[in-house]
Amino acid sequence: MAAGVLTKRLVMFADNILRVLREIRICGCTFAITSKRKIEAKYIGKTNGKLEVKKLDLEQMKKEIEALVIVKGFYNKPEDIPKKLLFAFIELGEASDAWKKGLPEEKIAEELIDVIFYIVDASRLACPSMNMDQIFKKKLEKNLNRPFQYGEGHRNKQLEENNK
Q1: Across-strand partners of 30?
Q2: Under 8 Å between Cβ of 70 and 29
Q3: Which 3-state string (H, E, C) describes the chain?
Q4: How far apart are CA 115 and CA 124, in angstroms?
Q5: Which of 38, 122, 127, 30 is nearest to 81 (CA)?
Q6: Which domains, ranges and CATH numbers included, belong to the chain?
Q7: Is the separation of the CB atoms in 44 and 67 below 8 Å?
Q8: Tens of pLDDT, residue by residue, the chain (164 residues)
Q9: What pairs with residue 29 in β-bridges?
Q10: What is the model's pLDDT at position 14?
Q11: What is the C-alpha separation between 22 and 106, in angstroms, rounded?
């Protein structure tokens, strides 16, 4: 939903909210109630028109991406999860294509970041009560405790076949 549409919807509630609050923060956006009929939306992550660069963990990324999704009017319902995963797959294909074509690393990285955006956003909708930082650490530990080249046994079989 675009910021203008979101702002219009929030204006409906301005009369009731004005009595209680002067500022509301929703998903990384601050909505300041400046008068009875005016709500201003500001994206918290921006300073002087430029995105503020800060170190983000997965949970912070979920919040930043949610703010982007809301401000830009992107898909934002649990039933949209398959679309987000499909878009991540498409972006992965674009990253692969950029790499095959020998495009600059920045272009490849940009496509990979798009993949991360869609995956993190899908996680936000699919498992909202899960802390993805904790899950990441748990999964990393699990994978570190697995045998060497786990899940890639096909490599050994291929080597054996090639040596025959």
Answers
A1: 25, 42
A2: yes
A3: CEHHHHHHHHHHHHHHHHCCCCEEEECCEEEEEEECCEEEEEECCEECCEECCCCCCHHHHHHHHHHHHHHHCCCCCHHHHHHHHHHHHHHHHHHHHHHHCCCCHHHHHHHHHHHHHHHHHHHHHHCCCCCHHHHHHHHHHHHHCCCCCCCCHHHHHHHHHHHC
A4: 14
A5: 122
A6: 1-54 (no CATH), 56-153 (1.10.287)
A7: yes
A8: 555 555 555 554 444 444 444 444 444 444 444 444 444 444 445 455 555 556 778 998 999 999 999 999 999 999 999 999 999 999 999 999 999 999 999 999 999 999 999 999 999 999 999 999 999 999 989 988 888 877 777 666 666 677 77
A9: 26, 43
A10: 47
A11: 42
Structure tokens at 37: 């009929």
Which neighbouring-strand residues pair with 42? 30
* Residue owning tokens 């050994």: 156
pLDDT at position 50, please? 56
**Token pair 């939903």 is at which residue?**
1
Burial label for 161, CB within 10 Å (0-12, 13-18, 19+), is exposed
Q: Report pLDDT for 9.
A: 53
What is the length of the chain? 164
